[in-house]
Structures are given as structure tokens and as C-alpha cells.
Design brief:
The complex is a heterotetramer of chains A (about 300), B (about 190), C (about 400) and D (about 240). Chain A has about 300 residues and is mainly alpha-helical. Chain A contains 12 helices and no strands. Chain A has one domain (about 5-300). In chain A, helix 5 runs parallel beside helix 12. In chain D, helix 4 (about 70-85) runs antiparallel to helix 8. The chains are: A mainly alpha (about 300), B alpha+beta (about 190), C alpha+beta (about 400), D alpha/beta (about 240). The interface of A and D includes residues 41, 42, 64 and 223 of A.
Chain lengths: ~300, ~190, ~400, ~240
């Protein structure tokens, strides 16, 4: 397949993922509303919000880096999509995945957060800076068990290629990593709670402490970019854990169902738990997930 | 309640003692002895709960009346200690060392009545108003209606009626106004 | 093991105490951040502001700013007839307006000598209305504490049930929020037909809600973690700061105006105010949760004990020419937030000389809050404020 | 546009206040709090920085009219704006007690695309919930001016229409429309959540018809509004326009 065709398919996949992410965030808010006993927003609300944000007339800047915050965030989201195989075994939908793409993915996961830190810091609002310092502290805490879990999988499958990890899990659900390597699986699922950023780990945007944190100053088109990269990230984070633990997907239906379930596992936890404080959140990741992560490595090392 | 007041009657030279109920009394004490008496009531008579501090403007007598309302949580009785101070350049000894919330009341009274409490923390800061240039707003001779009409923009068409005549006209339109007129609402 | 993981912030870098006892905070040194929480901040209770000085996200100094809701009620009432001042004054605190109605009505009755004339039926209806007001306040306040930790579902359920109580208020008084039901001399109307049955239905819903909120809040590990040991009011502060109501009861001081200075017919009801000893946010929300149970019980008791029929209003003079002889009084009641009182002075004319409201938040939200916030985390500000039941309109009137 | 151009433009925007002589002149007459005074501070690295908080934090730039682009595009955008109203979560008065019922199961304004946002930068509707004291009005003006255009104001209760019950109060304003442009008035004391919903429906109608251009009206009559605001806000310790 020529590189142009591949690019076209990748962009089409990005479009699918973007829309699926928006639908998923609408569904998320719908579910929260239903738990509360409300009717909730219409399912098409995120698209309208996006158009509305594009139609905002006033645009102002706080400096050059202020522009780059949303751009970096979006790059992080798109980069994660580009280098992760969307569907396994499909030449068209394998995107630009390559040997050792797992390392790059983990890097891209931090990339958006770092970009946001620079941009939001330029916004100059104290809420942004407090939110960013919380976000980076928590991100470091999440990253540790996550990388330990990933290393455990790398030791188990003797590879750092996501494609080969998925390939090793084919042939029925009993081959999924969550069953073959449950300790690493649980570590990664606990880290997933933090990576998804829902309550109890939503302290970056904590609406009644530091109202919505880093994006406080972002409006209009900037916010639209942030919203769409958020939607992509929702799907991509879920897809990463799907590929690592649940055998990947071989068609779009499977992709949608599996990402949905993984995403909503974090949503349902979030609905019934309040928010941690930053020191509690960091300590939480340093306890059970970290211990499990080390155990997962030790088991496969010997 | 009565026996407490009898006991301290001569000590503080109390005047105009009146009982609202058996457990609530209001009494007047001179400006010099007031804080002394409040301290005494707190330390020796068990009036440990500070209920409120207030001020009334008796413009006719050219006096401001401060009130310290104390409550005894064990005997369940209240005493209101009233102090009359001059209306010009009013000033009063600060009592912020007795209860930790008392400076708030003093700060409010400074703004609302212009009473100075030397030494009270943050007494000169704004409390509820910002950039207020008129005279203290709770004094009787500050006319809020006049101020509002001059400062803000009243909407055209808003009318004010005297309630008595308006109600009479609405309820009994055909009845002529009789001789029994009210003197206050003319 | 868990002690090992606990972060102990290094407070040595925090401001030194100067010779005059004030903190030495040099904002230009760039070590501190000035942060205003409010008035435009979703986490602040109502329209008020807390000015924080932060070192990192630890608070080194807090100042409360009020006055954003100042309307000058006390001035306005001085230039209105007694009856005209009535609808004005009940807007002094929006969270439980009925308490203002009772205070004004009771003060004028006492000063004009009509307090013995208020009929039996009116007394019971006043009690019912006051307890319903407390119930609607608690339905917002109890889950509101979980809402401060971003557990918003309880708030949604609670506000829905509060709406049902407001419906009953609408039946009883014709208005949703500002009822003007308790008037000098009695109340404005009898119970409508079938009111007790519909009320009982709502109370049964609320019983169900009480159980659910217990599971949601007090059985929740993270709620316990965030609420325990935060915002502690030691017992000795209760005298020093004049703390009242549930905040005092959560610190182990049993203070309830309904028990200590019984008004209306509270001495005929069977209840015991709940207390706790810890004095932290958890204790305060626990006391408030038990008060929710108790209020539901009290409404049931009132509906069972109240007479079926009777006069609801005493014969009062013509309100347009009503003059009250010179006098002064202090009237108090137990609102959902604590002792709520009014100092009322008359001078023999047809308008009051001075009306001064004593709201519990006056001490809780300024002197106490400023003291409690120091050395806490910025994440706890909202929770502390809500747990003190701060209500700004009663501070600034 | 190259990177340098953008930098220049940004710098120009940041320092525009220095050129605005009119704003500076007006500012000199007014009261300055000690913490807002111009001063020199020593940075952690030992260098000396000049700080002028009022000009560093705000802009002295006048708002300009931002014309709707017109045609089908504008109609489409107006439809999106009407279906997605983001309300600033600023309870300015006692009417804000009816906002929680509006957002909860009984009335649930989320169905109609009404959502709350905590920061003025991201909201485009402002509910003035009842009486406005002068102290709050100052904050409301700042929040309103920070909101990106197009923006709308819903004024609740009789207090915003003619002062209502507080017509003679020294602390509350009588007519809101003298200080800020109001799109929809919702009468009542206090308006029920149903009335609020009806107000939102009216606002939607106005937006879809392209009649909710009050932000431009504010920019057009800026001097008049500013004069009215300054008449009652005595300690005007901010520049005329703060984005």
C-alpha cells in the first residue's frame, strides 16, 4: 500500500476516533445525569459546543506559548493515534505502528500534559499553575506503575511492539494478557483510572477547588482544540489498554465496544467516589499499584 | 438574673434596668465602666457566650447607644449592657481581646456608625461597602432614599403611594373621606 | 507503613512571625501567591470572597471579604411601616427565609404586647413551617458536603427532594422561596386538604434518601479520608469564638435554642439534639445527617400533635396605623445553622428604630474561618466553608 | 505570518495600555490600592523588575465592534450558539438559590443545551440573579468584559428592572440596563425555575433571529456605559477595559 493511501486511511481513522470520542463524552455526561436522575444533555451536544466555540468572535492571547498549549495537547493526542495500530491484522488500519512503538506511545502520553503546562503557565492565572503542578505530580505518580506494568508485558512477550503484543493475545479471550498476566493487568487497570482523569483523580480540573484548572484562560477556538483532543485522548487511552490487556480489536465494531467498556469502567468508579487531594492521590499510586507493578516484573524475571 | 443584677448594682452604678423576661435584662452603664463590666460578667458571672454587639442612633438625644449582649449558657439568661456615647466623633474602648469574633462587630460599627475603636484589628478596613464617601450609612441623618435617587437611575413610571390613602381608594372607592383622618399620614 | 508515605510539608520556609505577632509576608519576594477565591468562583458558598495567600498550595493567610450582597436592610426597615418592613426583612437570608419571618413577627408581638394572644393553631403551624424550612435547608446542606469533594450525585438527589418540600410550601403559602407565612399575630392560612398525606409521601421519599446518603457519604472510603481530621474546631473555641448550632454540637457542646430557651411548642416535642466530639468536617456532616433524621421525625410529630382546627390569627390593630411603644428585645431561634437572633428596638412611632440581625455565619465565616484555613490545603477551603454552613447574606444584610 | 511577527503582535497587545493616554488620564483621577501601586520588586535572581499591576494585568484597549459575518454561515453559527448556552457560574444575588433546582432533576436545563461554566473566558451568558450591590457590580463588569463576544445577559427579578424592593437602598443599583446591556429580563421575586427556562427559550429565539448583538451595542456605546459605571463605582482601581 502506498504511503498516500495509508495516510488517507489514517486520517479517516482519526476522524472516526474523534467522532466516537465526542459521542463517548456525551454518553459519559448522559450516564452521570441518569445516575443523578436527570434527563441529561442531548447526545449531539459536544458537536454543537464545538461549532459554538469555533464561532466565538473574540480571540485574545497571553503570549506566544499560549497558542502552543492546545496545539501540543492536540499533537499528543494525534501522535498517540498515529503510532498505535487501530485494528489488528489490517493493513489499512494499522496506521504507522512500528517496532518499539510502545516507548513512543508512553512518551506521547506525557507530551500533551507538558505542552499544556507551558501554554497554561503563559495564561498567567493562578488556577492554571496550581492545576498544572497538580497534574504533573499526579502524572508522575501514574506513570510509574504504568511503566512497570508495560515492562512486565515486554518481559512476558519479549517485545516492545504493540502489534506483536496484540498478536500474542489472539485466539480467544483466554489468551488476553489480563488472564495470562493478571498482576500486570491489574496494575495497568489501576493506572488507567488515573490516566482517564475522572473522579477520584480529576484534581487537575477540580471544578470547585481551582475551577477547571489549566484551561481556565482558554476560550473559543483554543477550547475547541482542547475539547477535540480530549475526545481523541479518551478513545486512545482506552484503546491503549485494550491493545495491551484485552487482545486488541480486529474490526471497528470490536474497537468501539471494547474502548467503550474500558472507558466506562473509569466513569462508573468516578460517579460514586469523591475526589482525592493531590497528596492522597500520589500516595495511592505509590502503594498498591506500585507494589503490584514490582511484583509483576519480579514474577516474569525469574 | 435578678440577684446577679442586685449584686452588681452598686458596683457598676447600673441605671434604667429593665426586664424583658425573667431571663433577659437590659441595663445601662457608664462608658468608663462598660468594658470592665463586660469582663467581669464573662469571668465571674459565667456570661461566656457573646451573642452580639449592636448600636442604636438616638439622634434626638444626640447619643449613640452601644449594646453588648451576653449570654450565660449554664444559667440560661441574657444581659444586654447598654452604653451611651456622644454622637460627635464617637469613640469607644475596644473589647476585641475578650472574644475572638468581637473585632468583626467593631469593624462593622466603625463603618456603619463611624464609631472608632482604637486598637481593634483591621478596624479601618472596608466591611460591606467599597469606596464609600458619604457619611456613615446607618446614622439616622443619612437619607438613603435621597442618595439612591441622586445616584442611581430610577426607572420612569415608578410611583410611590401612601398605603393608607391608596388602600382606601382601592377598597372603598365610593366612600367619601370621613372626618376620622389619620394625622400621621397626611 | 502508612506513616512512611505521608507527606509532611516543611513549614520552616513559611513566613516568620514578626515582633508584633503578625506574619511577615512579603509578596514581592515571589514566594507567595495571592489568590482570590470568589466572588466569581463556583466553590464559594454564595457571593463572598476569601483572599488567600499561598505558599505552594498551603494557605498561610486568609481574609474573608463580604458585602457583595449588602442591601442595607436594617436601614430600609427603619423607613418603612412595620407591615411594609415585613416582606423586605424576610429576604435577609435566602437559605431559610422563614426564620426571618418568625423573628420579625415575634419581636413585634412581644414589644406590642400581643405575644400571649397568638392562637394555639398558629403556633403549631409556625413550628411546621420552621421545621420544613430547616428540612429544605438540610436537604441542600447534607449532600452539599459531599458535593465539595466533587461527589455531585447526592446534591442532585437532595435538591430534587428539596423541590418537593418547596411544593408543599407552595401549597401552604402560595410561594416557593419567600413565603411570608408567619405574620404578626399568627399565620396566613390553614393547612390545605390532603396536605398531611402528601407531606407524609415526601417524608417517606426522604427516609429512603437518608439511607442512600449514608451509604454514599459515610460509608465511602475517600469521603472519610478527606473529611476526617480536616477543619477541626476544638471544644474550647466554642466559647472563645461564639460558635453556635451544629458546629458547636459537632465539637461536643450541646447548644440548641429549641431545648435551652424553648419557643413555640418545642417543649411538647420529643427530641434530643445530636452531638459529636471530633469537631472536624466529618463530625459536622454526621451531626447534620442525624439532624436530618430528627427533622423528619419532628415534622411527623408536629403533624400528629397539632390540632385539626382553630383560629390562626389574633385580632391585631390596623397595620397602617400600628404603633408600638418604646422598648427593645432580643428574639432568638435555632435555624439550620445555629442561633439566629434579632435585636429589635422601637421608639413609639409607626416604624422601628433599629433592627439588627445576628446571623451565625457572622462569627463562623469571618473570625473562625480565617483562623481555620491557615495551614490547610487549598483543596480544603471549599469543604471547610460548606461544613460551617456559611450563608453570606446574613453577614452583611 | 512568521514567528517574529506573531511575537511583535503579542508584545504590542501586551503593552498597548502604555499608549492609551485617555485611559491613563482617567485612571490618575481615581483611587489606587497600595498593592496596585507602581513599584520595583527584586526577582529571585537578584534583578530588579518594574511592576505596574494595573497596566500589567489589564489592557487599556477599548472594545471594538465585532461584526457578524452574515449570510448562511452566521445563521448556522447562531443556531449553534442558541443550542449551546454556557452560563457563567456567578451567583450575584439571592436569585441564585433557584439555579440548583434549574440544573437538577426537576427542571434540568441541560436538556436545552444550557450548561454552567466556572470561568468567564468560556461562558457566553451571564445570569444577573437579582439585586446588584455596587460592590458586586464592579466584579460583574469585570467578568462581563472578560467574556468573549457574542455574549448575553439575562437579568432576573424585579430588582434589576427598577430596583424592586430595594428602590431606595444606598447600596443597590436600580436599573441594570444603564450599566450593562441586557438581552432578556425575567420578572418576578424571585423568578421560578420555569420562568428561567422560559427566559432561556426567549434568548434562544433572539439569538436565532440574530437580534442578540448586545455585545456590539456595548462596544458602540462604550463611553456612555463607562460614564454611568464610574458615576457609582467610587474606587475605580482598574483601567477602562480589562480583557
Amino acid at each position: 500500500m502506498s504511503i498516500y493511501a495509508k495516510l488517507a486511511y489514517t486520517l479517516l481513522g482519526l476522524f472516526i476516533v474523534l467522532n466516537w470520542g465526542m459521542l463517548m463524552s456525551a454518553t459519559f455526561r448522559k450516564i452521570v445525569a441518569r445516575v443523578a436522575g436527570r434527563h441529561g444533555i442531548p447526545f449531539y451536544q459536544p458537536w454543537i459546543d464545538l461549532i459554538k466555540n469555533a464561532g466565538v468572535r473574540t480571540t485574545l492571547s497571553h503570549g506566544f506559548m499560549f497558542y502552543l498549549g492546545p496545539v501540543f495537547r492536540f499533537t499528543g493526542a494525534v501522535g498517540m493515534f498515529l503510532f498505535m495500530p487501530a485494528l489488528f491484522g489490517s493493513d489499512m488500519w494499522s496506521n504507522f505502528s512500528f517496532q518499539g512503538d510502545l516507548i513512543l506511545l508512553l512518551y506521547f502520553q506525557s507530551f500533551g500534559m507538558l505542552g499544556m503546562a507551558i501554554g497554561a503557565g503563559d495564561g498567567g492565572h493562578p488556577h492554571s499553575t496550581i492545576g498544572i503542578s497538580r497534574g504533573l505530580a499526579q502524572h508522575a505518580a501514574i506513570e510509574l506503575p504504568m511503566i512497570l506494568g508495560v515492562i512486565s508485558l515486554a518481559i512476558q512477550y519479549h517485545t516492545l511492539s504493540l502489534n506483536e503484543i496484540i498478536a500474542a493475545q489472539q485466539g480467544g479471550f483466554q489468551h488476553w494478557t489480563i488472564f495470562t498476566n493478571p498482576i500486570a493487568g491489574i496494575t495497568l487497570l489501576l493506572a488507567a483510572l488515573g490516566a482517564m482523569g475522572h473522579s477520584p483523580f480529576n484534581l487537575v480540573k477540580a471544578p470547585n477547588e481551582i475551577p477547571i484548572g489549566p484551561p481556565t484562560e482558554y476560550h473559543g477556538t483554543y477550547l475547541g482544540v482542547l475539547m477535540s483532543s480530549g475526545a481523541i485522548l479518551h478513545v486512545i487511552e482506552a484503546a491503549l489498554f485494550m491493545n495491551l490487556l484485552f487482545g486488541g480489536a480486529t474490526n471497528w465494531l470490536e474497537y468501539i465496544v471494547k474502548t467503550f467498556l474500558i472507558y466506562f469502567y473509569s466513569v462508573f468508579v468516578g460517579v460514586v467516589f469523591p475526589r482525592f487531594k493531590i497528596e492522597q492521590s500520589v500516595v495511592w499510586f505509590f502503594k498498591i499499584p506500585l507494589a503490584l507493578g514490582i511484583l509483576a516484573i519480579l514474577i516474569y524475571s525469574f | 438574673m435578678k440577684e446577679i443584677l442586685d449584686r452588681i448594682q452598686s458596683k457598676y452604678n447600673l441605671q434604667d434596668t429593665s426586664f424583658r423576661t425573667d431571663t433577659m435584662a437590659f441595663t445601662t452603664v457608664s462608658k468608663e465602666l462598660a468594658i470592665d463590666m463586660v469582663t467581669y460578667m464573662r469571668d465571674y458571672e459565667g456570661f461566656k457566650h457573646f451573642v452580639m454587639m449592636s448600636c442604636v442612633d438616638w439622634i434626638e438625644d444626640n447619643k449613640l447607644q452601644l449594646l453588648y449582649l451576653l449570654n450565660n449558657p449554664t444559667k440560661k439568661c441574657d444581659i444586654g449592657i447598654k452604653v451611651f456615647i456622644e454622637r460627635e466623633n464617637p469613640s469607644m474602648q475596644s473589647a476585641h481581646h475578650l472574644w475572638k469574633q468581637l473585632w468583626t462587630y467593631q469593624r462593622e460599627l466603625k463603618e456603619a456608625f463611624g464609631i472608632d475603636f482604637p486598637g481593634s484589628p483591621r478596624v479601618d478596613e472596608n466591611f460591606v461597602l467599597e469606596g464609600w464617601t458619604e457619611k456613615p450609612h446607618m446614622l439616622r441623618d443619612f437619607d438613603t432614599n435621597k442618595y439612591a435617587e441622586e445616584t442611581y437611575f430610577p426607572r420612569e413610571g415608578r410611583s410611590t403611594n401612601d398605603p393608607a390613602t391608596y388602600m382606601r381608594a382601592k377598597l372603598y372607592p365610593n366612600q367619601p373621606v370621613t372626618a376620622k383622618k389619620n394625622k400621621d399620614h397626611e | 507503613m502508612s506513616k512512611f508515605f505521608e507527606f509532611k510539608p516543611d513549614r520552616s520556609k513559611y513566613p516568620a512571625m514578626g515582633a508584633d505577632g503578625k506574619l511577615d509576608i512579603d509578596l514581592s519576594s515571589q514566594k507567595y501567591t495571592k489568590l482570590w477565591l470568589g466572588p466569581n468562583h463556583p466553590g464559594v458558598t454564595g457571593n463572598m470572597a476569601v483572599e488567600l495567600t499561598l505558599a505552594g498550595d498551603e494557605i498561610v493567610e486568609a481574609k474573608t471579604h463580604v458585602g457583595y450582597l449588602h442591601r442595607g436592610f436594617e436601614k430600609l426597615i427603619e423607613r418603612r411601616l412595620y407591615v411594609q418592613g415585613f416582606p423586605t426583612s424576610i429576604r435577609m437570608c435566602v437559605a431559610e427565609p422563614d426564620t426571618n419571618e418568625y423573628l420579625i413577627a415575634r419581636s413585634t408581638e412581644v414589644l406590642s404586647g400581643y405575644d400571649k394572644d397568638v392562637p394555639e393553631m398558629a403556633q403549631w403551624l409556625r413550628m411546621l413551617s420552621l421545621e420544613m424550612a430547616r428540612l429544605q435547608g438540610l436537604l441542600r446542606g447534607v449532600p452539599g458536603q459531599a458535593g465539595t469533594f466533587s461527589l455531585g450525585i447526592g446534591v442532585q438527589w437532595g435538591v430534587y427532594l428539596r423541590d418537593l418540600i418547596l411544593d408543599r410550601f407552595e401549597e401552604l403559602t402560595g410561594a416557593r422561596v419567600y413565603h411570608m407565612y408567619i405574620i404578626p399575630g399568627g399565620v396566613r392560612g390553614l393547612l390545605p386538604d390532603g396536605f398531611k398525606k402528601r407531606m407524609e409521601d415526601n417524608l417517606r421519599d426522604i427516609d429512603d434518601f437518608i439511607v442512600r446518603i449514608r451509604q454514599l457519604m459515610f460509608n465511602n472510603a475517600i469521603f472519610n479520608k478527606r473529611a476526617k481530621g480536616i477543619g477541626v474546631i476544638p471544644k474550647e473555641w466554642v466559647e472563645q469564638y461564639g460558635i453556635v448550632g451544629t458546629n458547636a454540637r459537632a465539637s461536643g457542646v450541646k447548644r440548641d435554642i429549641r431545648k435551652d430557651y424553648p419557643y413555640l411548642h418545642y417543649d411538647q416535642l420529643d427530641f434530643d439534639p445530636p452531638t459529636a466530639t471530633d469537631g472536624d468536617i466529618y463530625a459536622r456532616s454526621w451531626v447534620r445527617w442525624q439532624e436530618l433524621i430528627q427533622t423528619v421525625d419532628l415534622i411527623r410529630q408536629i403533624m400528629a400533635k397539632m390540632p385539626e382546627k382553630g383560629d390562626i390569627r389574633a385580632q391585631m390593630p390596623n397595620v397602617l396605623h400600628w404603633k408600638i411603644p418604646k422598648g427593645e428585645t432580643y428574639t432568638r431561634l435555632e435555624s439550620g445553622r445555629g442561633e439566629y437572633g434579632m435585636y429589635y428596638v422601637t421608639d413609639g412611632s409607626d416604624k422601628p428604630r433599629r433592627v439588627n440581625l445576628r446571623g451565625p455565619s457572622y462569627t463562623h465565616a469571618i473570625a473562625l474561618l480565617e483562623k481555620m484555613l491557615v495551614n490547610t490545603n487549598i483543596a480544603d477551603v471549599h469543604a471547610t466553608m460548606v461544613s460551617l454552613q456559611t450563608c453570606p447574606p446574613e453577614i452583611e444584610r | 505570518m512568521s514567528e517574529l511577527d506573531i511575537n511583535d503582535k503579542v508584545n504590542e497587545m501586551l503593552h498597548k495600555s502604555e499608549h492609551n493616554a485617555a485611559a491613563a488620564e482617567c485612571f490618575e483621577k481615581t483611587f489606587v490600592r497600595p498593592e496596585d501601586e507602581e513599584r520595583e520588586v527584586i526577582a529571585p535572581d537578584g534583578s530588579i523588575i518594574k511592576v505596574n499591576p494595573i497596566y500589567d494585568y489589564f489592557s487599556g484597549k477599548k472594545p471594538t465592534e465585532e461584526k457578524p459575518c452574515g449570510g448562511v454561515v452566521e445563521k448556522f453559527l447562531n443556531w449553534a450558539r442558541a443550542e449551546s448556552i454556557w452560563v457563567l457560574g456567578f451567583g450575584t444575588g439571592c436569585g441564585s438559590i433557584e439555579i440548583p433546582p434549574l440544573m437538577t432533576p426537576r427542571f434540568d436545563a441541560f436538556r436545552f443545551g444550557v450548561q454552567m461554566r466556572p470561568t468567564p473566558r468560556q461562558s457566553n451568558a451571564f445570569i444577573i440573579s437579582g439585586y446588584l450591590s455596587v460592590k458586586t457590580l464592579k466584579r460583574v463588569i469585570r467578568s462581563y468584559e472578560q467574556m468573549p463576544s457574542p455574549k448575553y445577559i439575562l437579568a432576573l427579578g424585579s430588582c434589576t428592572i427598577n430596583g424592586g424592593m430595594y428602590y431606595d437602598s444606598y447600596s443597590t443599583i436600580n436599573r441594570l440596563d444603564k450599566y450593562l446591556p441586557v438581552d432578556v429580563y425575567i420578572a418576578g421575586c424571585m423568578p421560578r425555575p420555569e420562568a428561567l427556562l422560559a427566559g432561556f427559550m426567549k434568548l434562544k429565539e433572539l439569538i436565532k433571529a440574530g437580534k442578540a448583538e448586545k455585545a456590539n451595542e456595548y462596544a458602540r456605546n462604550f463611553d456612555e456605559y463607562k460614564a454611568n459605571q464610574k458615576k457609582i463605582i467610587k474606587d475605580w482601581n482598574m483601567p477602562d477595559y480589562n480583557w
